[in-house]
Amino acid sequence: MHASARIGILWAACGVVSLVGASTTWAQGGRTTLITEQQARRFGLTRAWATRIKMDSSRNRVHEITLHQGALISVTDESMVQAFDAETGRTLWTTLVGQRSFPNTPVGASASYVCVCNGSTLYVLSRRDGSLLFTRKLQGTPSAAPTVSDTRVYVPTFAGAVESYEIKPEKPKLTPTTYRTKGSIDESPVLAGDYLVWGTHAGGVYSANKDDLNANYRFMTRGPITAGLGYWPPLVYAASADGYIYAIDEKSGKRRWQFSTGYPARQMPVPLDGNVYAIAELSGMHCLAADSGNERWFSADVAKFIAASRTRLYTADEQDRLVIVDRRSGAHLGRMATELLPIKVENTQTDRVYLATDTGLLQCLHEIDQVKPLVHELPPDPEATPAGGRRAPAAAAAAAPGAAADREMEADAPADAAADDDPFGAAAQP
User: Fold this and answer.
1) Close Cβ partners of 3 (under 8 Å, ≥ 6 residues apart)
2) Maximum Cα–Cα distance for the chain, whole Å?
3) How far is it, in rounded angstroms, from Cα 320 to Cα 303?
4) Side-chain-side CA neighbours of residue 277 (13 Å)
């Protein structure tokens, strides 16, 4: 063998040894992309499964992973959409959509459909097997994931419009119903009862009938709304860069309460079991009473909500470490090194913690004793209109937690404007 070839093989072998040694060191220091069972158990967790997203990790990256009713759905920057069983990690299907070089939105999904935008084209897939049902050329440029029901798909745009398309695979309507607003739409609209609700960069919260997009109300804040809206019947929760969290009646658009965080709020408020978890920049997490906005506790150094179990909140700090918070008191119970797992799926549906790398490693953690997933279900809307067309009895509405307080506050609340209080105080003055 030629001397230069032998030298090349020697250097290659040294490189392999070096990589193995580095990998071992990182694992010993707790800085590994794959959470070991030993590491998980130190925090009362177990790693339920780990898998790889189908992609060429040397050239491509994971764009987004979202959870939709028992399915994790990833999108890569080469337009590969892959669905996993959220409880086992088993691949359900993979589908390549559109042009590999075009930008993709995250997916939206319902019980029957999965929708994604590639460039300025909407792709509607079967939720069952990922097969392509039909496509539509959009009028605007999509700015966030579509919102999907079993009859319609709603696409937000940078121009501030929502385009609504009927889902009829056999004979879909070509022209969308469109609602135009002021300011770009940074996050997906929310289906709230009979309405579609969304926020804009101009500070507005808009509501329209979900079937025909007829206007319902506009609620104005004094700062951009760049976070998704939270929903827990009968209230919609909005976080604004003006420093307030707002609770808005889903039907009337009246403000039930508002809470000053003191800093811009750019994370989605998460309503859950009578509480709202709100995060402000340079601050932390506020736990608020969902019906009144009263603060129950504050937990510093929390930058992102990830998931919730019966007794814990799983969050991330500014350094991208997993921070475990006690749900009752807000105390920090532990902090796990997860800096090398930058994709942390926001899960408001169950207690599972999903972590991933942008090169395709996806894994699931849960509490050791929680073998079956704890599902967070929305309560029935006391003001919803049943299929028969008659509203729920007033007694049923009054029986809802906090209903009396809501009615009292609604009577005095302004209909469509934020209060003039300054959440920043004198510090905001030039």
Assistant:
1) none
2) 90
3) 8
4) 26
Q: CB neighbours of 430 closer than 8 A, spacing ≥ 6?
A: none
Candidates 196, 156, 203; CA nearest to 180 is 156
pLDDT of residue 6: 43
Q: In terms of pLDDT, which residue wins out, 395 or 3?
A: 3
Structure pTM? 0.82
Beta bridge partners of 315: 305, 323
Average pLDDT over residues 322-331: 98
> Does residue 77 contact residue 104 with C-beta atoms inside 8 Å?
yes
- Rounded distance, CA 305 to CA 60, Å? 27
Percent of the chain with pLDDT over 70: 80
Give the residue with greater pLDDT, 380 vs 300: 300
User: In the structure encoding, which two tokens stand for residue 233, read together?
Assistant: 């019947």
Give the tens place of pLDDT for each residue, 346-390: 999 999 999 999 999 999 999 999 999 999 988 876 655 554 444
CA dist., res. 270 & res. 290, Å (int): 10
